[in-house]
Design goal:
The protein contains seven helices and five strands; from the N terminus they run αββαβαααβαβα. By secondary structure, it is mainly alpha-helical.
Length: 170
């Protein structure tokens, strides 16, 4: 707690800029990125926020599809991918639920699905298992490990030493 895990992740997706030293994002100093370059770089980064921010008036599937909508992609053309992703995170049966109706583990899985819907090169996960039980944390960790095996770079911030030990075994 207080070691700078969340700050490091915010530097990686350029929500914060370093006041000293340097941070390179996709082989370029973050401070040299223009506003447009930051927006383009962020499309290559999926972020699982610690507090799972959702739009409560949208369904689970609409919250997951939000990055597609914001980027101007045709959500209806992506329905097959959305269905596959919902199955992958184990939420097919909950796709029409609203965020307030979800458990902590379901919210974390929605956050993970939303972070990967655009097919990012990098996934940054800030305490993705902080609000779930051990079994669910193992499931979420397995999903992140699977993404890594698929060639994605995964940076996970956690204070849970047991989770770190478990990740080493996978």
């Amino acid at each position: 707690s207080g070691a700078g895990k969340s700050t490091l992740l915010k530097l990686c997706y350029m929500e914060l800029m370093a006041t000293s030293g340097s941070v390179e994002v996709f082989d370029q100093d973050a401070r040299d990125h223009s506003r447009d370059q930051i927006a383009l770089a962020r499309r290559r980064i999926g972020v699982v926020h610690q507090d799972c921010k959702f739009l409560d008036h949208l369904s689970v599937v609409e919250n997951i599809a939000l990055p597609l909508t914001v980027s101007g992609r045709d959500v209806s053309a992506e329905m097959s991918n959305l269905d596959d992703l919902m199955t992958w995170v184990g939420l097919s049966e909950r796709k029409n639920a609203r965020p307030p109706e979800l458990s902590g583990g379901e919210r974390q899985r929605v956050a993970l699905a939303r972070a990967v819907i655009m097919g990012p090169d990098v996934i940054l996960a800030d305490e993705p298992t902080g609000n779930v039980d051990w079994d669910m944390s193992q499931r979420l960790l397995s999903l992140l490990v699977e993404l890594n095996k698929m060639g994605k770079t995964v940076l996970l911030a956690t204070h849970d030493l047991n989770l770190i030990r478990s990740a080493k075994k996978q």
